[in-house]
Design brief:
Number of helices: 2
Number of strands: 3
Strand order of the largest sheet: 1-3-2
Order of helices and strands: EHEEH
Shape: elongated
Distance between the termini: 53 Å
Radius of gyration: 33 Å
Largest sheet: 3 strands, antiparallel
């Protein structure tokens, strides 16, 4: 988006400056009276067709899918460890003898 301020003696002259420089598609987004005339702020939105379309980078998208898959696997593993830890804590605080508690913990 292109935004520009115009200064002129009156609104008619300011509007002419806007049309001459930005064209008929420009939008007036602000105006105010100043010493010696008016200040007009106008904007011109770029055409979407003028912007280059996004070309997908297949290598990056493939890497993103692999990374997302690793994250899901890691979260599942973490959740299973949390369930195991919760089970151990439940056993410890349940009043059972310590010898009855399964203390096998896998290394990480």
């Amino acid at each position: 988006m292109q935004v520009k301020r115009f200064f002129a003696a009156d609104m008619r002259q300011a509007m002419k400056l806007v049309r001459d420089e930005l064209g008929a598609e420009a939008a007036i987004i602000g105006n105010r009276r100043i010493a010696g005339g008016v200040e007009l702020t106008a904007a011109l939105d770029y055409k979407l067709s003028a912007l280059a379309p996004r070309v997908p980078n297949m290598e990056l998208e493939d890497e993103l899918r692999k990374t997302q898959s690793r994250i899901v696997s890691a979260q599942a593993e973490l959740n299973s460890r949390s369930d195991s830890d919760a089970s151990i804590n439940l056993q410890l605080f349940s009043g059972k003898p310590v010898s009855a508690v399964d203390t096998h913990i896998e290394p990480t």
